[in-house]
Amino acid sequence: MIRTVSIVPSILTDNKQDYRAQVERINVFTRRVQIDVTDGKFAPTETLDITNVWWPKNWEADLHLMATNPSEHIDTILKLNPTLCILHAEASEDLMPTIQQLKDANIKVGIALLPSTFPGNVKPYIDVADHVLIFAGQLGVQGSPADLMQMEKIPLVRNMKPEIEIGWDGGANMTNIRALAHADLDVINVGSAISQSENPAQTFQELVAEIDKNGVVL
């Protein structure tokens, strides 16, 4: 039986004006959004600094932090108070203290897995997480093709922790959204397919309609 799958637009930019424009466009049609932030070290590209990030009060914001040392940003994260903060398992420090600080502040914790990371190798993080993000694109870049081989991680994570929310990030669009939706995911983050659309609201609705279709998934 297919799970209920949420399409969550993502924002990734290095420009304050573009950030505001994307927020205003997305705010018309959804309330859950993923904000992608890099520190200029973990990913090859640099986004808008986390201190310049904001979102409407009515949003359910997922903050995806691509940082080598997430603990350096904890004070800013706590002030922003996202619904969910996603940290990378590949960070250069022990994430447990930061995870505990987030949980103490009633912020849900997500663990992102790069393509080279095997879920079993980071089981202690998954055991305490609320969300696992299967990353299948190019770090810090929107519009890269999806590595659909990463779908093999989904049952591994689900068997490890059946109740956990599992998200997908990387290359989701109209050509693969149905296959992803039938792969036991809970969340599919969509970047360029929405942000580069001439009509983001219409594209969002088309993606939602596509995953609701019955029939064979090729």
Describe the fold and architecture.
With 218 residues, this protein is an alpha/beta fold. The protein has helices at residues 16-26, 74-80, 96-104, 123-128, 153-160, 177-181, 192-195, 200-211; strands at 6-11, 32-38, 60-66, 84-88, 108-113, 131-135, 165-169, 187-190. It has an eight-stranded parallel barrel with strand order 1-2-3-4-5-6-7-8, surrounded by four helices. Strand 3, helix 2 and strand 4 form a beta-alpha-beta unit. The longest helix is centred in the last third of the chain and has 12 residues, at 200-211.
Q: Brief description of this entry?
A:
The chain is built from eight helices and eight strands.
SSE blueprint and pairings:
Elements: E1 6-11, H1 16-26, E2 32-38, E3 60-66, H2 74-80, E4 84-88, H3 96-104, E5 108-113, H4 123-128, E6 131-135, H5 153-160, E7 165-169, H6 177-181, E8 187-190, H7 192-195, H8 200-211
Parallel strand pairs: 1-2, 1-8, 2-3, 3-4, 4-5, 5-6, 6-7, 7-8
